[in-house]
Amino acid sequence: xxxxxxxxxxxxxxxxxxxxxxxxxxxxxxxxxxxxxxxxxxxxxxxxxxxxxxxxxxxxxxxxxxxxxxxxxxxxxxxxxxxxxxxxxxxxxxxxxxxxxxxxxxxxxxxxxxxxxxxxxxxxxxxxxxxxxxxxxxxxxxxxxxxxxxxxxxxxxxxxxxxxxxxxxxxxxxxxxxxxxxxxxxxxxxxxxxxxxxxxxxxxxxxxxxxxxxxxxxxxxxxxxxxxxxxxxxxxxxxxxxxxxxxxxxxxxxxxxxxxxxxxxxxxxxxxxxxxxxxxxxxxxxxxxxxxxxxxxxxxxxxxxxxxxxxxxxxxxxxxxxxxxxxxxxxxxxxxxxxxxxxxxxxxxxxxxxxxxxxxxxxxxxxxxxxxxxxxxxxxxxxxxxxxxxxxxxxxxxxxxxxxxxxxxxxxxxx
Length: 415
What we know:
Residues 188-223 are annotated as: Disordered. One of its GO terms (cellular component) is plasma membrane. Residues 10-409 form the Major facilitator superfamily (MFS) profile domain. The chain crosses the membrane at residues 47-65, 77-96, 102-124, 136-155, 233-252, 258-281, 302-328, 382-404. The protein starts with a helix and ends in a 7-residue tail after the last helix. By secondary structure, it is an all-alpha fold. It folds into two domains: 3-190, MFS general substrate transporter like domains (Growth Hormone, Chain: A); 226-408, MFS general substrate transporter like domains (Growth Hormone, Chain: A, Up-down Bundle). The protein has helices at 3-23, 29-40, 44-72, 74-94, 98-115, 117-128, 133-143, 146-161, 163-183, 199-205, 230-261, 266-273, 276-288, 296-317, 322-348, 353-382, 387-408.
């Protein structure tokens, strides 16, 4: 059995735990917000407002959770996130009004800050250093089915037993499935002493893949060449992730309306929307295969162009090109999900990765919280012209990725 194969059981367990975390938090309001609001006597916007507040808290918790993973490894942090998820979902099941609704969502927000992708990525980097790139891709391939699993399960539980039972079942799954899965993760070894960049770090910076071993060595934690302007690099990366995730969340919230404004019928718009999930998985498979030979910076540039190219095709050809738009948008979104884990690793290295991820992703959480409202207002005011906003943000992200090497002092990866 090869060394990479010996790592896949860890990736599989973490991927399933991440699927549970995403399905029971980020994808929960889409199915349960309306019945939840009806039963509690509040408007659906109140439930979504509580969800937005949860994402704001997740942004605040992220850096501290990442720092804890850097210091102690991901296992205790992820187990704690399962416990807080269970408390928040249990609180939702027992909520009696706006105050208890918001309190429960705040607990879920704290768990999101310590239990979603950023924490999963940091866990693998703390275990395997530079060798974590393949594992990061593997996590996103598995958890990419969170909505595929979560939405039908939530819908069935709500229809058969009510939304309160649905939340209670998700809470029990965190205790009965999430905690054991995360408890089975390897304990993080002591961090090797800091070393100067060597041949492996050079090969990583050039985009070569170094076969990971089952157990990380000091070479897996070599520091990359020091950046001339690390703060500038961090700001640019943070902008890229915030801009692209603003667009991703906007499309997740408003895609049927966008396609209808482009001329598609209501049924066709819903049908086309189902293509995005498979396209995201296809993008992640592409990253796991051919794109893995490239530096993550090049993958991120391709990903940033997916949405605007799709918009140009849709605007030029018309509603018949709606499937092409969905596929291009989904491909870009799938690849960018991986890039937000692999690109900071390639640029900043594995030391302090967890805290860096938390800091980089904090603006992204803010953008996600604001995206449905802001883009919805743009659609009302500009119609299909609002796609200029989403395309412009992705193109600005692409430009930021172009100037990133020069702004940070890192060597430009070869094309």
